[in-house]
Amino acid sequence: MTVIQQLNSPFMYMLCGAIVFIVALICVLFLVRAWKEGLALGIEKEKMRRVVVSSAAFTVLPSIGILLGVIALSGSLGVPWPWLRLSVIGALHYETQVAQAAAEAAGLSGLSASEMTLGAFSTICLLMSMCIMWSLILSAVFGKAYSKRLMKGRSAADAEKGSSGGGFGDLAMTAMFVGLISAYIGSYVGGLISGNGRFSFSGNWMPLAVAAAGALAMAVFVWLSEKKKYSWAESFSVAGSMLIAMIAAVALDLIF
């Protein structure tokens, strides 16, 4: 039995599926309690029904990106583990990046099914889990105090506009993503530089071209969302950009 066959074994499906089922059950319980609480507050059933339908509709589009992440990771990590990670606590941008970094740290050239070993898979799973668990721990310990601090710092004008105040969280997330993108783009650019410090277009330029296609697609979605006021564009931006980048990768590979 190969490593991929073991990672797709019935035991892995049962183990990961049990956790996903528990989380799904909790979501259903919260849905039922929220519905009952809405009725207790006197909210009309028709209004709540419209909210449920609207929320479900706008959940489908972003979930396409999650499905693409599961498909992308399943080739080297099997289906159950990516399914569990991206169904419960994982985020698409986090899982793929950490899995790639962990695979390289384990001695693999990347997330390759042909190179995958059980030891490397264990390292990837451990790193993916350890790195993200701190969000739960820090939120449980400091979340309430942090929320109170944000509320205290809100000015009267911000309160009228519904703003959250200083926006440190937005700045921190933006800085983190800029740093991650710079690191990846820098590594790709470095692969095109020869020993004498000059660009060598005989190197692997495909990642840069695909990144450019994805960035251009995201820019179009942002333009549609912010300038043309198409609300669906914001929900579909991540999934749409990924699809366009994947199509660009296939097209460029066939052409060149």
Structure description:
79% of the residues lie in helices and 0% in strands. It is mostly helical and 256 residues long. The chain is built from 10 helices and no strands. It has helices at 3-7, 10-40, 45-77, 80-88, 92-105, 118-152, 156-161, 168-191, 206-226, 231-255. Residues 162-166 have low confidence and may be disordered. Helix 2 packs parallel to helix 4 (80-88) and helix 3 (45-77) packs antiparallel against helix 4. The chain has a domain at 1-165.
What is the chain-wise order of helices and strands? HHHHHHHHHH
Q: Rounded to an integer, what's the Rg over CA atoms?
A: 22 Å
- Helix/strand structural class: mainly alpha
The main β sheet shows up as: none
Count of distinct strands: 0
The average pLDDT value, as a whole number, equals 82
Shape: globular
Number of alpha- plus pi-helical segments: 10
Poorly predicted runs of 5 or more residues: 162-166
Q: Which band does the percent of strand residues land in?
A: under 5%
